[in-house]
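WARN  no MSA supplied for this record, continuing single-sequence
INFO  ligand: iron/sulfur cluster
INFO  echoing inputs
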Amino acid sequence: MYNEINLDNIDLRQEPPLEEPARQYYFMAECRQYTKRFFEENGRLPSASVHTFGCQMNARDSEKLIGILEKIGYEMTEDEHAELVLYNTCTVRDNANQKVYGRLGFLNTIKKKNPHMKIALCGCMMQEPSVVEKLQKSYRFVDLVFGTHNIYKFAELLASSLESDRMIIDIWKETDKIVEELPADRKFFFKSGVNIMYGCNNFCSYCIVPYVRGRERSRKPEDILQEIRRLVQDGVVEVMLLGQNVNSYGKNLEHPISFAELLQEVEKIEGLERIRFMTSHPKDLSDELIEVMKNSEKICRHMHLPLQSGSSRLLKIMNRRYTKEQYLALVEKLRNAIPDISLTTDIIVGFPGETEEDFRETLDVVRKVRYDSAFTFIYSKRTGTPAAVMENQVPEDVVKERFDRLLQKVQEISKRTSSRFEGQTMPVLVEQVNEQDSRLLTGRLSNNLLVHFPGTENLIGKIIDVKLEESKGFYYMGSYK
Ligand code: 5AD
Ligand code: SF4
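INFO  complex generated
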């Protein structure tokens, strides 16, 4: 297995191999020369700080980037006073971009005191040409910029950067390549994200993701199953299958397979206890999948089903390819098959042309579905998407007023909905010591709700039965015997 390769056994007098991932291990070995030299000169290892913005896909990518850095010999730290600071960025809404620019200003002041510091940026935001232009013009102190398609080349890019004072920029428009078997450092030893596909083909008219993540590419089922088996051997009991649109998994493979079929194969893996997945597109959610979920022992009782808007008129302009009625029918089908399922969603307020009437349709769906929780977003104009040039952009004050009304409704409903299990005893995967109160542990129910209860650290990573004593709205307080 590549992961177990000892970098010291790689002969750097040879030319770097052309095939992946061997090539990246060669460059990891080269970077390791740097960390060794640093240690000799400074009596400590160089430190690296990785910061992640955005979604679960980015979180998983960061685990891979950190895995590579640890293999090279960096000491990981949260502190941005480090020899290497890497931001894995998001660009789904403009405020994510603004946050990065703001923090770059702060990094610049740190770098002035530590000229050897390297600043690297990667992720979705870097796939936008206007961002790279701005960096080249106004942020010359950034050392390395790469994108989403060549993230597997991180070691090679870092090796070039360590040898050079120039700003290195390497952004690819597309790729059909999927490189696996690079190191990864899991944040939790007992659970892991697993990419099953990359990219998105849907082109919802407000969304920048298809432009920055490219077209849909599914990994082969054998590779996914192999990765999960190894994770399970390594102590993982819960996996989250990741993709922008998991319901269309496998359609473009040489031997097509459905997402439901993949789930059935994953279910067979012995030792694996829980399966989650993210994100489902309502237009592709099949009866077959509902049936598989219903009969499964391991698939968690949770479905994240982005609504975006409750207005069929807006949904059409958003290019979502379902109507309000179809969405509600789907919810009913899910609830009939799996009565205790928890439903969560994403909603956008203030899409161009949204009228009060459209907005009320959204509120109506929220009322009818009774979500366990909902992520609500103010529409953000993303240059290059069809919606950015639509007329009738909604005035800011109107959007804000609607957003507040929606948030209030969502909170009121989710408080009631998520308390429905009060008094029951349910299996919980213990995730961590409570961040606020170290006498408590925090665990996750199958339906994704959290419960805090008194307990000791040795339970972390185990699935245990916890009594849900009291609902606090978005979480429970519980007890464990
Ligand atoms: N503005 C606001 N929210 C957006 N999302 C995607 N694009 C935009 C945008 N331009 C939201 C959608 C999606 C979630 C990940 O982000 O609700 O489901
Ligand atoms: Fe964006 Fe739509 Fe693809 Fe989700 S399905 S990533 S919202 S284009």
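The chain has a mean pLDDT of 96.
INFO  checksum written, moving to next record
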